[in-house]
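Sample 1 of the test manifest.
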Amino acid sequence: MYRYDSIDQAIVDARVAEFRDQVARRLSGELDEEHFRPLRLKNGLYLQLHAYMLRVAIPYGLLSSRQLRMLAHVARRYDRGYGHFTTRQNIQYNWIRLEETPDLLADLASVEMHAIQTSGNCIRNISADQYAGAAADEVADPRPWAELLRQWSSFHPEFSYLPRKFKIALTGSEADRAAIRFHDIGWQLVTRDGAPGFRVFVGGGMGRTPVVAPLIREFLPADRFLSYAEAILRVYNRFGRRDNIYKARIKILVQEMGAEAFARAVEEEHGRLLPLGIDAQEAEVARIAGFFADPPFEGGLDDTVEAGGDPAFARWVARQVQPHKVAGYRIVNISLKPEGGIPGDASDAQMETIADLAERFSFDEVRVTHAQNLVLAHVRAGDLRAVYDGLETVGLAAANLDLATDVIACPGLDYCTLANARSIPIAQKLADRLRPREEVLGELKIKVSGCINACGHHHAGHIGVLGVDRKGTENYQLLLGGSGAEDASIAQILGPGFTEDGIVDAVERATTFYLSARAPGERFLDTWRRLGAAPFKEAVYG
Amino acid sequence: MKLLTGNVTRTGDVVWWDGAGWSRRLDAAVPLEREAGERLLAEWAATETLNDLALVDAEAGPGGRPRPLHIRERIRGFGPTVRPDLALQGQDWR
């Protein structure tokens, strides 16, 4: 994985020193909150419902064991013993004290981490396919390009005050595990005549106005990657609306201009940029790619997995383990959705254990997924039992990947000042209700958000739940038919909302109808698409 | 009926005006009339020791104790409902 050079480290260290001074001036009263707020937000520090919340960037969701141990240390030393992995592959801490934040950031900097650009109207943490460099179906590894973007976008002076926040995702596979079409820019690595390049999607997003990003360029040669990114950002920065926060994302600009006109504007801008030679040199791309070279895989490994008569282990292997590009290896998904747990939460002890397992069995690295789970990308088939046993000791051996209990949920009104309703209890109740038949239901992606901002990705759920405030009471809308995968679609609101218990009953009725109506091999989403809303509405509302 | 609340700048802790000072316990909060609340708010805002000071609407809760009208402020006073181990003990957010 990428390691900081002296410039990276100097930048991050300087930022810690700068923030230490700013915090001291705030605590002495020299800075008032009005002037301090934008400074702390530039360092990922929010004031949430109960305390300060720190959002730490995990570039493209990739962590070393050393870094994950540091995240465990932060949870233990500066928080209340846990952290929350988010749908942007970041981690958030909910109980941070302002006076301790400079020390916390210094600790993070010691392992090449920070909280810069995790807030504000800038280019946020770059996200990517969690199976990058390991997937059997991968065309090319997106991580070198994600790292190139990270370096290009960090403190980019031209893009520090965009009309609104800006989110970028990359994948190197046809199967979209990074929800690229729900991003401001989604890059899909492809090849044409053996040459690498990108399909470029621009103007996707969730929130108040959900949009599946249109394709604006069928094939962009890889050697024009940065100049094209710069052209897109320039068009957005120039023409994006700044008069209305709800109309300021690039998706609105693309919609208002039309995708074709927007693409033409980008191409024109790109034409002006190309002669400036801002694209990364081949040698620099190769240097960065070198950090993501394959680890020393062993050849000739036994490719079989023996369950040894243990049904729980066999079920875990069948559900959590995915094929790897190298024979004898597997990708292991670690569920952060244990029974009774909070989606995405991990304790310091759990993080320590996963770091140990990664060090012993997966070339010292861990990935965070946008579905709030973790991944060990390179595990020998013969080590699966040991990994499973290790996970079991910390309660993380659930076998529910992409099943009904693998619910995505934002922090909701239990933690977030923006939320209108609680998300986590709904996720827990839904999981409890559907657990007995989750295997029968098959792939069923349920996503819960506590407000219209959609951090829980409810628009992209096969079943989405949106919490709203109805005259001071929590109310929940049911949405069906969304997908964040390569078959991206936006879920539709089915009808009037429900109470906290009512939404659980409603989801159960929708799933019961699906079981009665599905054709052989159909997922919930397929049945919805085949039959449309009417029979589901009848089943849910009567 | 109003309650005066804010977050301690140094720590982020949620606090409530208890009549003589600031308490972390919602059940220690005392009701205020708007005018008195606004006067206190302005006074404390000037000190910069508290953030996000606000006068929130309140009602008489179980046992007659004042509690915020809105669920957001009740959860804010209690702690995350999904982590009662981290919430203030002996209180009920509902």
